[in-house]
């Protein structure tokens, strides 16, 4: 592959074009940010770990008929992906109350939700990624009503698979964030990544201790320590899942 200048640099990945306009290269970085990039740092081996976890999960989802942008891995921290136009939406699915849901509703941390909650946030750093209503989302034409319905259906299907998958890894899937994009045929593809950066993952074997159980980016956000160990542990369990 010839060397290209980068197309885009985000907080966790750099996207490069390739010789094929339908294919891009995502290089996963070790950089870590939180609270809209007000907190910055680095997590050793994060690029490689998140690429491996995401790649495995995307392949499992593809095997279950969910279309993703994943193609293959040219290197340990690299993913070849289908070029898509990312919809400016962060789609969050929650099974257990944590994070902003607790802050905004007063629900106690750890409350098991009777049904998974699917929420849409406006992917806009300047505005701080605000929670959207369906009407606001449609008003701003961030997606069509049909796309909103398809995304909701896909998000719940992805949650069903991921919840069971992580259960087999002895991990509770608390919540996670997804991003979707449209390819050149206007086909909706699951994009971005699914990793400890974008999911809340609680170690079942650690019991109810609110700090010990955390195997995700909350260790970085809340300065809990052992961030690398937690990411490595998730990778190990995901690759050895029964
Ligand atoms: P919350 O709304 O509680 O902050 O986040 C809910 C879930 O979505 C968590 O698993 C969190 O990691 C993920 N999430 C929400 N927004 C972002 C974001 O901007 N970046 C990343 N990496 N994850 C996010």
What are the SSEs and their pairings?
Blueprint lengths: L7 E2 L3 E5 L5 E6 L2 E4 L4 E4 L3 H18 L6 E6 L2 E5 L2 E2 L2 E8 L2 H7 L6 E11 L11 H6 L5 H24 L2 E12 L5 E4 L7 E5 L14 H4 L5 H13 L3
Antiparallel strand pairs: 1-2, 2-3, 3-7, 4-5, 6-7, 8-11, 9-10, 9-11, 11-12, 11-13
Helix pairs in contact: 1-6
The chain binds guanosine-5'-monophosphate.
The site of guanosine-5'-monophosphate has 15 residues, from strand 9, helix 2, strand 11 and strand 13.
Describe the protein in words.
The chain has 242 residues and is of the alpha+beta class. It folds into two domains: 8-82, Phosphorylase Kinase, domain 1 (2-Layer Sandwich), CATH 3.30.200.20; 85-226, 2-Layer Sandwich (D-amino Acid Aminotransferase, Chain A, domain 1). It is built from six helices and 13 strands. It has helices spanning 46-63, 99-105, 134-139, 145-168, 218-221, 227-239, and strands at residues 8-9, 13-17, 23-28, 31-34, 39-42, 70-75, 78-82, 85-86, 89-96, 112-122, 171-182, 188-191, 199-203. Strands 8, 9, 10, 11, 12 and 13 form a six-stranded antiparallel sheet that branches. Strands 1-2-3-7-6 form a five-stranded antiparallel sheet. A hairpin with a 2-residue loop joins strand 6 (70-75) and strand 7 (78-82). Helix 1 packs parallel to helix 6. The chain is globular. The termini are far apart. The model has no long low-confidence stretch (mean pLDDT 97). Guanosine-5'-monophosphate binds at residues 90, 92, 98-101, 129, 175-177, 197-200, 217.
